[in-house]
From TrEMBL:
Name under which the protein is recorded: GIY-YIG domain-containing protein
Gene3D superfamilies assigned: P-loop containing nucleotide triphosphate hydrolases
InterPro entries associated with the record: AAA+_ATPase, GIY-YIG_endonuc, P-loop_NTPase, SLFN_3-like_DNA/RNA_helicase
Residues covered by the GIY-YIG domain: 28-112
Entries under CDD domains matching the protein: GIY-YIG_COG3410 (cd10439)
One Pfam family cited in the UniProt record for this chain: SLFN-g3_helicase
Length: 593
């Protein structure tokens, strides 16, 4: 394919008027264009002032530029780059537009001014060939100063992975459309609602949560002059009636995990219409002076029931919030009850099999929540695997292997499966696995070592200490719990479940510690309680008078390893400490050679 051409001109009425008649394609040909504030100071992804950028596509670029010049939100932009190609068609232009929006949002140097009304991953004739040419367009724009980082650097960043400008899969898009249409009906009739979105690891629950919030904000802030396109997926939602329904609506995104919460706040700081203050803990919700109209709850399985909290202050806070909301300290109330009490509408995103601590909302409550949503036709399953290149079969395979209930001849135990194109290997040497993770980091980036919480965290208080020792090789746990995956020292450390749940990696090297073992005589997995060092992961619940048996603990530890083993996009490496478990798993995981 011949290379695309990029025209550059000032974003002024005079420049557009001169440019329009210079070539027939300026007024009658599908093109993609980039508007930006050329005078703004460039910045890194870590802070400072941001440049504003807008990406669009049109069959009549000159008319579209004049429309943008009339838009109050874009008059401050200074420069236009128009990308022209003799082979462009509408589908290719929509795809290139989405490609550039996603990468600009992930670059970290911009506020992307586009609204979020339907970036999808649509197929069309010769798409693969067109997408090869998109890389050439990127290279030209990067050489011209539009991009500050390479595509691999951008795609490996949290800003990219957690951006609201994502291409939705078909099941995600259908769910979002149905959910929002139902929400607008409920808002109009003043009817309370509860919606559940359910999906396994890698099906994009967090993506959907962020996407919906951005879409609602964009609908609320739409100005009539900006409504140029009517053929995007969610364009029919951008109507005055919906905008009126969203006026002054109080919306929050509840994220229980500290690390993921801070990463999302970082994205919101760079996204017009979204604010870090929208990202909340359940305690923030409970303590809020005003109620919320809508709460979107990501990783709802990590909400807490009443249990011993990490600090005395939080224990008191839990009791105080319950008293405030329900009139007395009802210990049966959970943070799920807080969310219901503080909002008229709730959207829960969950996967009960990712519950990893006794303090998490119990599975029977999650099951009741799911069944109730199904009964009211407000349940939306996500099935398409977006993270693991091996697909949803791999996720199901890992869960079956870790959940194998009986001896070797048990029919529930799966046969060894091969996942073509996915690097799934077991190592007999933890040193060799670490070396391979480092090699993959050089090759693809975003490759990390992970482990179950089977060693005490000595280095938390003694920075010179090592936490994990295996066959004479020493490792330290993650030195931070906030955004550890992107931290400066993460390649030298080992991440725990609390640093990676909700995150993607390219390659994950997972150490299955001595907390999970295998009894060859009975053919069953079992827990070594003395080798499990997550204090909150095995603590009995004195408030509710619950004692957690080894069988209860086995469920949590299985879930922990199922999460760790489904972080890798391109591959997962495994080292197993328990010799019997190692031999057992050889039947299911290909050996490193």
């Amino acid at each position: 394919m011949t290379p695309s051409e990029i025209s550059r001109l000032d974003f002024t009425p005079e420049a557009v008027t001169r440019w329009a008649p210079s070539h027939p394609r300026n007024t009658n040909w599908p093109v993609v264009y980039v508007l930006d504030d050329a005078l703004a100071e460039k910045t890194s992804s870590t802070g400072g002032s941001l440049r504003d950028v807008y990406v669009g596509e049109s069959r009549n670029a000159a008319v579209r530029m004049r429309q943008h010049l009339d838009s109050p939100d874009k008059r401050h932009l200074k420069r236009i780059r128009v990308i022209v190609d003799e082979r462009f068609n509408k589908s290719a232009c929509l795809d290139l537009e989405s490609f550039l929006i996603r990468l600009l949002a992930g670059d970290g140097a911009y506020r992307v001014l586009n609204r979020n009304d339907g970036i999808t991953d649509g197929d069309y004739y010769d798409r693969d060939l067109y997408r090869e040419s998109f890389r050439e367009v990127f290279d030209k724009l990067q050489a011209d100063g539009v991009f500050t980082r390479s595509i691999p650097e951008i795609e490996n960043s949290d800003l990219f992975k957690l951006s609201p400008f994502k291409a939705l899969t078909q099941d995600q898009a259908i769910a979002v459309e149905d959910i929002l249409e139902g929400l607008f009906e409920d808002l109009e009739s003043d009817t309370n609602s509860t919606i559940v979105i359910q999906g396994e690891p890698g099906t994009g629950k967090t993506v959907v949560a962020i996407y919906m919030l951005k879409l609602l904000v964009d609908i609320a802030n739409t100005v009539a002059v900006e409504d140029f396109d009517s053929d995007t997926m969610f364009s029919e939602l951008f109507i005055p009636q919906n905008r009126a329904l969203l006026t002054d609506l109080r919306i929050g995104l509840v994220v229980p995990q500290q690390s993921l919460r801070e990463s999302i706040r970082k994205v919101f700081r760079k996204t017009p219409g979204l604010k870090p203050s929208m990202v909340l803990t359940a305690f923030d919700v409970g303590n809020a002076d005003e109620d919320f109209d809508l709460l979107i709850v990501d990783e709802a399985h990590r909400l807490n029931q009443r249990a011993n909290q990490p600090s005395g202050v939080q224990n008191k806070n839990f009791a105080d919030i319950t008293k405030k909301l329900f009139g007395f300290d009802d210990v049966a109330k959970t943070q799920l009850d807080w969310i219901r009490a503080k909002s008229k509408h709730q959207i829960y995103l969950l996967d009960a099999e990712q519950s990893v601590r006794p303090a998490d909302v119990p599975p029977e409550l999650l099951g009741a929540l799911v069944n109730s949503a199904k009964d009211r036709h407000r349940h939306y399953p996500l099935a398409t695997q977006m993270r693991v290149q091996a697909g949803s079969d791999y996720v199901a395979y890992i869960r079956r292997v870790l959940g194998s209930p009986g001896p070797w001849d048990d029919p529930h135990i799966p046969a060894k499966e091969q996942f073509e194109g996915y690097d799934f290997r077991m190592f007999d040497s933890v040193a060799d696995m670490r070396a391979e993770v480092r090699r993959k980091e050089e090759e693809a980036g975003l490759s990390r070592m992970l482990a179950g919480f089977a060693w005490p965290w000595k280095s938390k208080n003694d920075k010179t200490a090592y936490d994990i020792e295996i066959d004479g090789h020493q490792f330290r746990w993650n030195s931070t719990q906030t955004d550890w995956v992107a931290s400066r020292t993460s390649l030298e450390e080992v991440g725990s479940i609390h640093t990676v749940q909700g995150y993607d990696l390219n390659y994950a090297g997972v150490i299955i510690g001595p907390d999970l073992r295998y009894d060859a005589k009975t053919g069953r997995l079992f827990v070594d309680r003395a080798s499990y060092f997550d204090k909150k992961g095995k603590e009995n619940n004195k408030v509710l008078q619950k004692k957690y048996t080894d069988e209860d603990l086995l469920r949590f530890i299985r879930n922990v390893y199922a999460v760790l083993l489904t972080r890798g996009i391109r591959g997962t490496f495994v080292y197993v400490c328990d010799p019997a478990l190692r031999e057992y798993l050889r039947a299911f995981i290909p050996a490193d050679e």
